[in-house]
Amino acid sequence: VKSVLRKTPIIAGGGIDSYEEVVTRQCMGASAFSFGTIFLKKPWLPAIIMKRYVSNTMYAWKNKDMGVNR
Question: Cα dist. 68→7, 45, 59 in Å?
């Protein structure tokens, strides 16, 4: 889908309950994530997952800009 609709954001949702699941969905082409039922079971978990995701993403971008991954 991402290769056909390059400028259209893909929002992944349904069943996201871990950081690993967010990374998996990103690898599948998602650029945004939607949490649903997890807010009823563990309302604090989406914030923890996204905090880790953003932290790791920013670290990767920062190191790429500094030439660490070249």
Answer: 28, 31, 11
